[in-house]
Amino acid sequence: MSDNINIAIDGFAACGKSTLAKQLAQRLSYIYVDTGAMYRAVTLYFERHNVVADNALAVGDALANIHISFVKNTTNTHVDTYLNGENVEQAIRSSAIANKVSLVSAIKAVRTFLVEQQQVIGKDKGVVMDGRDIGTVVFPDAALKLFLTADIEVRTQRRYEELQSKNMPQNYVEVQKNLQERDHLDSTREESPLRKALDAVVVDNSNLTPEEQLAMVLALVGCRVNG
User: What pTM, to 2 d.p., does this model score?
Assistant: First the structure.
């Protein structure tokens, strides 16, 4: 496609946002940015350095020492997250980080820090970005905005299977509890809460395969690009 656009994907945890974003980026030869990994990386740094969320000075000092980058895996099948030069892809997917990332994401200084980086990445367009506030805050002018949702049972099973496949087994009930807690925190936080942009297309993928969802969204992309 000759005219690149930015694609913003928002939605609840375990709705397959990253899967869809990666598929779109590959098919369209766009840049994929996993904003969730960025917030997880900051959370990991805070954990390692005992940064207290309500200590503004400590938070500011920590952010000044954080550099996040994405590098293709040696198998060239996916992108790994690097924190200050260290591959932290496995570390940021742990349940300990998952349980705290929503709290760190609610800190205004953290959101400002990462949103600025995300907007720089998208200034030349041709970017697929997924998160919680992409269509409302990061790319409010994105040509295509999607809001993904799915039944909680479906989402729980997906996340449970994902953790199992990564040799990070978790109790099913605990996985569901974590998702519900994140839904509440993400939707009620003061800074950039999770909400659907007015012009976003809602995609309920409870009963859609990844292939069916991709075909649907590619059709939407075609409509946006071709006017």
Answer: 0.83
